Amino acid sequence: MIVIFGATGTIGTPLITALLAKGIDLRAVTSNTSRVAALEAQDCEAVVADFEDPAALARACKGAQKAFLVTPAHLDMRRWKANVIRAAADAGVHHMAMSTGLGASPKARLTFGIWHSDSQELLKESGMGWTLIQPTYFMQNLLWQADSIAAENTYLDDLGGSVSWVDARDIADVSAEVLTGEGHLGKTYGLTGKEALSGGDIAALLQQTLGRDITCRAVAPAETRAKMVLSGISDEVADAMTELAGLAPKGHLSGTTTTVQEVLGRPARRFADFIAENAAEFSG
Questions:
Q1: Taking the mean position of all CA atoms in its chain, how far away is CA 253?
Q2: How open is the CA angle 146-29-36, to the nearest 5 degrees?
Q3: Predicted structure pTM score
């Protein structure tokens, strides 16, 4: 039995699909009761547990041999991860794969890197076997702009530099292999796509696929931060996201890894293909 925390998120959703395709017994954990029926319809066990509820987390982990953990970017994510790690270790889970962020380590200087590193070190000290999944920015983030791309033919570049975007399905597929294959204990897997793309590059790919002119408009960090806060993101997390995005103009988010190829034996998905698959979303 593998228990999945974050089962209905951007990584968790395709991870459930990938593991079910392998015939694995799953327990999907969600804090949203409205998601239970859809999870059960996929033929996996579904339980409701809040990251702040140790008793519910303990029930979610009972009888599981392995676990996957991912949380949203949130001010409390370190405490949430600590609660799950503690519950899993107490329940006798012997291997946990945890998604954090590319470059997270005790030497990290960025806020997210520090927060993720704290959780990574806690997992390493838990007594469970561990694997760290460290992805970069998700291609799926582009879907947040689907309406504006469709209506205004404009891609909003809030990073200002090249980024080695990764498809969340590749993160899920690597995680599925980590949880079912051999040789992954004690490994840290940095995950990126095959290429680094600027905002202009993404606009060009959109234009090529959609067959209409797409403009790239630079968005100032202060404007992006203000929108995040307006959407309900805390000031602290908005600051951490702005800090991370500030690496892009310096070229620090453009490095690529070959991890997807090495773990899965196939290339990482391309952004051009992701756009083509979702062309209807950008066309209104």
A1: 16
A2: 75
A3: 0.95
